[in-house]
Amino acid sequence: MRSFKAIFKKQLKDTIKNPAILIQFIIFPIIAFVINHLVTNMYGVTEEALANMPNQVTMQAGIFAGMGLIMVPMGIIAEDMDKKSLRFLTMAGVKPMSYLLGISGVILVAALCSSLAFTVIGGFTGMDFWIFLAAMMSGVVASIVLGSTFGLLAGNQQAASALSFPAAVIIGFGPMIAQFSDDVARVMHVVYTQHFNVIADYLNFGVSDAPLWHSFAIMWGNVAVLLVLFALVFRRKGIVG
User: Would you state the torsion angle of the CA atoms of residues 140, 145, 150, 151, taken in this order, to the nearest 10 degrees?
Assistant: First the structure.
């Protein structure tokens, strides 16, 4: 607990001082808001406009949770590896989960604010509000763990960007491509961003091939696998980072 608090405070100070990180949590909700505003101006407050609004918001929310957030923890951890601070932390006895919780705690708080903004902009109310927010945060957690693992694997910021960017694009935009390709859809079926889209489609259009708990189970299955992978990579590379 003491390690978690120390890392959380350190990361909070670093994040506040880093506008490049903060902008990640602001730009996507702004884009969603602007698109909604343009749709309203184009169609007026009609059924067509109201049908298009949630779809645009959930698309931006999926890109945020699936692509944008991978880059944030990746950059943080790669920087710690680059400066050898992660090596000192592990020598001091900091455990993999304490380190991950410390840096991700700050990201989770900021991502929760962004997710609430998406939920409000999308006009979700009642139970739909909580389902959409839960789906967003499930994707956020998976992306944080995946981005953290990329940061450990790369070892420095330049290599981390080269390693994580292609994967982030695939994970972020894969569900949209899957709408036009059955082969891509079969591959994406096991990826958490695809199931965020499944939940979003159900909330937007009432369409779902499986119960919602099935999509949530796959998303958190992704989280469990990624946590194990993070712990393994941390033990292999953390001390010698």
Answer: 100
